[in-house]
Write a structure and sequence with these properties.
Blueprint (H helix, E strand, L loop, with lengths): L33 E2 L7 E2 L13 E2 L6 E3 L11 E3 L1 H6 L3 E3 L2 E17 L4 E5 L4 E6 L7 E2 L4 E6 L1 H16 L2 H13 L4 H10 L5 E5 L4 E6 L6 E2 L4 E6 L3 E9 L11 E5 L8 E12 L5 E9 L10 E17 L4 E3 L2 E9 L2 E6 L1 E6 L2 E6 L6 E5 L1 H21 L9 H23 L5 H8 L1 H9 L4 H17 L3 H22 L1 H6 L2 E6 L5 E5 L13 E3 L2
């Protein structure tokens, strides 16, 4: 059975050679082409002047310095070859995909705050008057044991007298009770020891700082009357501070105590502080829908000031990933891609599928292997050159006549299935049986199989229009719809059957006819006319 000899129409589509790779079309001409430097879309076969601007044309090919290879069988971008001296002039630098540990970044806004664990409040346990104030302004530095103020209090005077009376009577129980009373009123142990030694009442009792830090709040002055429980001052230690970060509600679930955190502050440009999570608040703010994550930072040099803003980055989902530098990625209409160095001065732009990005690296999920080299600098120039030369190549392919296209046997068999679909529709209409849409499905897939190789040639519109007509035939509900689909299919195939492979189809006995009344087309085997259109209509052979 010859390749074009048709199967039984009802068995059409059961046998189809599904070819996974497309065979190259071979050389399409070795003659030099010329183009205008200002209008590269103009291409001529001979040397001359540009009809647009009048400039002298230049030869498109540049010898061994730059060459373009035939387009790959899987539809990838064309590779180009560049001379070593040109590579050096372009400043090309190379890199390799590396396994790098990073994850997804969650950015949050933070505010520096005091470490509340290091806050000391000074309050009075007894009523009295501040007679002498050693710290007079907020911001004063305080050391543990430093004098803060002296207080005159009748209650303290009475407590001292009771203690001295117990000492005179040498009653151990009373001495102990009086000392405990003085301690309960806030008197320090060192003052009690001095009182025991001097045996005289002190009217202005001294009070000392219980911790190191800075006076962050002062609510009294000399002469102020104070009451029991009233806060007099606050001492804050700033050796460590907190950062309260507001994290979006949806991101809170990804953060835990082991999450790595990076912090940047406006007053420390260029510096990154690394820390970990100290505490995650169990509630969410009702108005902002954010939760608070607390971080703790060392601040012995006092560079971090409460109230300052902070930019917080949480690194979640840490894992070892194959990644490339961000600078190596290019973004095109079809997504991200890399320029791969194939060796010996050969380069090829290759589309990749990317994943997470962090710290100047982007994960490559698909499209590149670890042992391949990529271009990290200068790739834009290489990619631009590749795209330009590829466009020239496609323009040349578009200039080829249908008869000049070189198709393999498998590719010819695919196109023949489109003709088979036309014969199937003709026979169904002529013999009066229903068309099975399933039988047309293999022919509907031909366009996608041949498009990567021939989509940018004159065969492309033939495939596209034929695909559209077959889809209409599958959806036809009436004979009128089916006749219109048959006419559309044969109209699409007409350039291929008459200009592309006229002798081939004539040899196989496939004929193309036209209805003399309305000009609608059909295809059939043999010279005897069987019109699929209106009864009594006449058909004429289309030359």
């Amino acid at each position: 059975m010859t390749p074009i000899q048709l199967l039984n129409p009802r068995m059409l589509g059961i046998v189809l050679f599904l070819v996974s790779s497309v065979v190259g079309a071979g050389e399409e001409g070795d003659s030099a082409k010329y183009t205008c430097p200002m209008h590269p879309h103009y291409i001529a076969d001979e040397m001359g002047s540009c009809p647009i601007c009048g400039m002298d044309l230049v030869k498109m090919t540049s010898g061994p310095e730059l060459a373009v290879e035939e387009e790959d069988t899987d539809g990838e971008r064309a590779a180009i070859t560049i001379a070593p001296e040109t590579i050096q002039n372009m400043g090309v630098r190379y890199a390799q995909p590396e396994a790098t540990v990073f994850g997804r970044r969650i950015r949050a806004y933070g505010v520096v705050a005091e470490n509340e664990r290091l806050r000391s409040e000074i309050s009075s346990r007894v009523a009295g008057w501040i007679e002498s104030l050693a710290v007079t302004a907020v911001g004063d530095k305080v050391k543990r044991g430093n004098l803060l103020y002296r207080l005159f209090s009748p209650d303290l005077v009475a407590a001292q007298q009771d203690y001295l009376s117990a000492l005179e009577r040498q009653s151990a129980n009373r001495i102990q009770s009086a000392a405990i009373r003085l301690g309960a009123l806030g008197v320090s142990k060192s003052f009690i020891a001095t009182l025991r030694k001097k045996r005289s009442v002190v009217e202005q009792v001294p009070f000392y700082a219980s911790a190191d830090g800075t006076l962050s709040d002062l609510r009294v002055r000399e002469g102020t009357y104070v009451r029991p429980g009233e806060t007099l001052a606050v001492i804050q230690d700033y050796s460590t501070v907190w950062i309260n970060a507001a994290v979006a509600e949806k991101d809170l679930v990804a953060i835990n105590s082991t999450t790595q955190v990076r912090i940047m502050l406006p007053n420390l440009p260029g510096q990154v502080i690394e820390t970990s999570v100290d505490y995650i608040h169990p509630t969410v703010d009702r108005s902002s829908r954010t939760g608070t994550v607390r971080l703790q930072l060392d601040n012995k040099d006092n560079r971090l000031r409460p109230g300052a803003y902070a930019d917080v980055l949480f690194e979640v989902g840490l894992d070892r990933r194959l990644a490339v530098p961000d600078s190596a990625l290019l973004i095109g209409a079809d997504g991200p891609y890399l320029v791969v160095a194939l060796g010996n001065g050969r380069f090829q732009p290759r589309q990749v599928r990317t994943g997470l990005s962090s710290g100047g690296f982007t994960e490559v999920v698909e499209g590149i292997d670890r042992d391949e080299r990529i271009v990290a600098s200068g790739q834009f120039l290489i990619d631009s050159e590749s795209a330009l030369r590829e466009s020239f190549q496609k323009l040349q392919r578009l200039k080829l006549e249908l008869a000049d296209l070189n198709l393999s046997k498998a590719q010819m068999a695919m196109v023949d299935h489109l003709v088979d679909a036309g014969l199937y529709l003709h026979e169904a209409l002529a013999d009066g049986y229903d068309v099975d849409p399933v039988q047309l499905q293999p022919a509907l897939e031909i366009r996608d199989l041949l498009w990567p190789k021939f989509g940018n040639t004159r065969l492309g519109p033939v495939l596209d229009n034929a695909n559209h007509a077959i889809a209409e035939a599958q959806q036809a509900r009436t004979e009128s719809d089916l006749r219109n689909a048959l006419h559309g299919l044969v109209s699409a195939l007409r350039p291929w059957m008459l200009d592309g492979r006229k002798d081939y189809y004539h040899e196989k006995g496939v004929r193309l006819f036209k209805d003399v009344t309305d000009g609608r087309l059909w295809v059939q085997q043999g010279d005897q006319v069987f019109s699929p259109y209106l009864d009594g209509s006449k058909g004429a052979l289309v030359q």
